[in-house]
Amino acid sequence: MFRETCSQPLLPDSVTVNVLTDGFRIQIFSTKDLEKAVAIKQIAIEQLESLNVKAYLDFDSPYYKIRIGDFLNQENAENSIGFIRSLGYPSAWIVPAKVWTNPE
Questions:
Q1: What phi and psi values does residue 46 have, to the nearest 5 degrees?
Q2: For residue 81, is it within any domain?
Q3: Do the beta carbons of residue 21 and residue 101 sit within 8 Å?
Q4: CA-based torsion, 83, 87, 93, 94: positive or negative
Q5: Is 5 part of any domain?
Q6: Domain that holds residue 39
Q7: Each residue of 18-66: pLDDT tens digit?
Q8: Which of the two residues, 15 and 29, has the higher pLDDT score?
Q9: What is the largest CA-CA distance in the chain?
Q10: Is residue 8 part of a domain?
Q11: Residue 75, in any domain of the structure
């Protein structure tokens, strides 16, 4: 009888897995104009660069949506929305989304 054993972990301790899961993002902008969406995303990236927060451009026909962050729970998103609004996005709101568990 052949029996395989594995004494080594599949991933070293220093490797962090990054997978998509249910969570929340903060939507800051929506438009039908791709160029405008790209421009707003770039501004958001520059504003958030020092915080290591990601900005995403999602397409949900016919709208391009700019969304911020990878929040695993709504409470974390709620803790951040005031700051996002203070950056010049007063109508920002929290939306359910697939988010990264360990965004790089």
A1: -65, -40
A2: yes
A3: yes
A4: negative
A5: no
A6: 20-99
A7: 999 999 999 999 999 999 999 999 999 999 988 889 999 999 999 999 9
A8: 29
A9: 67
A10: no
A11: yes
Burial of 83 (0-12, 13-18, 19+ CB in 10 A): middle
The CATH number for 74's domain is: 3.30.70.1070
Number of folded domains that form the chain? 1
Helix (H, G, I), strand (E, B) or coil at 64: strand
- Which tokens hold the place of 99? 């988010």
CA distance 83 to 51: 12
Rounded Cα–Cα distance for residues 87 and 70 (Å): 18
Please state the pTM of the whole predicted model: 0.83
3-state secondary structure the chain: CCCCCCCCCCCCCCCCCCCEEEEEEEEEEEECCHHHHHHHHHHHHHHHHHHCCCEEEEEECCEEEEEEEEECCHHHHHHHHHHHHHCCCCCCEEEEEEEECCCC
Q: What is the 8-class DSSP label of residue 45? A: H
